[in-house]
TrEMBL record:
Residue ranges, compositional bias (Acidic residues): 312-321
Protein name per the record: Palmitoyltransferase
Membrane is among the record's keywords: yes
Keyword presence, Oxidoreductase: no
Species assigned in the record: Pygocentrus nattereri
EC number(s) recorded for this UniProt protein: 2.3.1.225
Leading EC class: transferase
Family per similarity comment: Belongs to the DHHC palmitoyltransferase family.
Domain annotation Palmitoyltransferase DHHC: ranges: 122-242
Annotated transmembrane regions: 12-31, 51-71, 167-191, 203-227
Length: 335
């Protein structure tokens, strides 16, 4: 037991290594750009002031979004998705798989759940002892179920999901902007150092590596950011892109795709003035989402206490609880 705790402690320590690497590179880039380039290399005062001001705007937004992506805890399912003491006892004492499956089905009727496991059974997490909401998955690194889990990112040492997906996207975008600004402003001085127009001092080393590092990170970030833009437009998570969510009628990669505009709104919110700032504006509570094949009035985005109250039941249909998955009823999809 002590060895196991020691291993977990070492794992937690080592998991911060990628964050330390990124932070070290960023701090070095700050010193190299502000001091070695702007203060020691530039002689034009207007150019120097302009570069420093714009650089600090990019630097602050990068640090702000990176901080939010790292330290925003993943959202976990509410207590309504956990088995009650009696249900848990009944489930664990039952040895017949078919009866266990039926127990979960009966409990799930009281919850807004539309997805299923590959076998068609209710998605249940044995480790967290809860019925998984739609788009929720268990993260073995965080050791918890995460709402609308996208992936576990080692570069932020955090699970990217419902609570911080917007922050992660902004982190990628401001990282690209940070790299582009550095590369664009450093390039002319890189050429001057290269051809010998500027003195061969220590600033040359920093300026040369600034350009290489900025371009290297930009290329890698460009592909990752482009991929996530495509995911947002399709309303898919990384996990759903590799394995389509399963509904009552079978797998459907576009099950949550309700149109580009509405997909964007789910992640960034209605107020476009806040889209570029790392403040939480995503719609809903992460427990369930509009479905492409269901009427919006039957499957609202925002959780309603009237729909699944403290007792877990539904005021609209206490006997059924779950809206039938009727493919003949559709909503207008905007592409």
């Amino acid at each position: 037991m002590a060895i196991s705790r020691g291993l977990r402690c070492c794992q937690r320590i080592f998991s911060w290594i990628p964050v330390v690497i990124i932070s070290s590179v960023v701090l070095w880039s700050y010193y190299a750009y502000v001091f070695e380039l702007c203060f020691f290399t530039l002689h034009n005062t207007l150019e120097k002031v302009t570069y420093v001001l714009v650089f600090h705007v990019c630097f602050v937004m990068f640090c702000w979004t990176y901080w939010k992506a790292i330290f925003t805890p993943p959202s976990t399912p509410s207590k309504k998705f956990h088995l009650s003491f009696s249900d848990k006892e009944r489930y664990e004492m039952e040895e017949r798989p078919d009866v266990q499956k039926q127990i979960l089905i009966d409990i799930a009727k009281k919850l807004p759940i539309f997805t299923r496991a590959q076998s068609g059974a209710i998605r249940f997490c044995d480790r967290c002892q809860l019925i998984k909401p739609d788009r929720c998955h268990h993260c073995s690194v965080c050791e918890t179920c995460v709402l609308k889990m996208d992936h576990h990112c080692p570069w932020v040492n955090n699970c990217v999901g419902f609570s911080n997906y917007k922050f992660f996207l902004l982190f990628l975008s401001y990282s690209m902007l940070y790299c582009v600004f550095i590369a664009a402003t450093v390039f002319q001085y890189f050429l001057k150092f290269w051809v010998g127009e500027l003195p061969n001092d220590r600033a040359k080393f920093h300026v040369l590596f600034l350009l290489f590092v900025a371009l290297m990170f930009f290329v890698s970030l460009m592909f990752l950011f482009g991929y996530h833009c495509w995911l947002v437009a399709k309303n898919r998570s990384t996990l759903e892109a590799f394995s389509a969510p399963v509904f009552q009628n079978g797998p459907d990669r576009n099950g949550f795709n309700v149109g580009v505009r509405k997909n964007l709104t789910q992640v960034f919110g209605e107020d476009k003035r806040l889209w570029l700032f790392p403040v939480f504006t995503s719609q809903g509570d992460g427990h369930y989402f509009p479905l492409r094949t269901l009427c919006e009035s039957q499957n609202p985005l925002l959780a309603s206490e009237g729909r699944w109250g403290e007792d877990g039941g539904s005021d609209e249909d206490s006997t059924d609880g779950e809206v039938e998955h009727d493919p003949s009823v559709t909503i207008d999809v905007e592409y």
